[in-house]
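fyi for ur records
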Amino acid sequence: MTTAGDFRAVATEYLREFRSLLDALDITAIEAAVDALRRVRDDGGTVFIAGNGGSAATASHLANDLGKATRQSGQRPIRVQCLSDNIPWFSALANDEGYERVFAGQLENFAQPDDVLIVISASGNSTNLIRAVELAQVSSMVTVGLVGFDGGQLLELVDVAMWVKSEVGAYGPVESAHAVLADIVTTCLIRDTATA
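which gave:
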């Protein structure tokens, strides 16, 4: 039987490990991601975001924050679309073309040079995200990845990698760290205020 003392030990250990993940984050990579988003915003381009499972929830949250919260800056609005959100289109692509095409199939309709694609994956090995990045590269888009574990294939494919280095399989801490990274990026853009 598990006791309250056991729960305290689990929580304490989790927080210790989570702090170590956050302390190891590469601030230069965060800065590069923010710069890419500033450029696409200022040029009137579009940001596309994709993820699976818990990372799809992070993708939706980030799209919301980039589209709404960053308007506080007084800068032009960020055009943003979460490719995980259109379930009818997503499921039609999965059914008709295969799950590996659910993001690339949507992106084919919209991708323009210098747009930004953000992919979120704890493993860095999701085939549908890899296909989306490959399409983005052919379309001369900028690619940003939030990855975990050993970085997976996406680590080497994306232009900018915000990598939460962790043990393979540490989904909870990595997905939580990705949410923190998304909030840091959003906060940077909120504070990028327009000047008179």
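The chain has a mean pLDDT of 96. thats all i got for now
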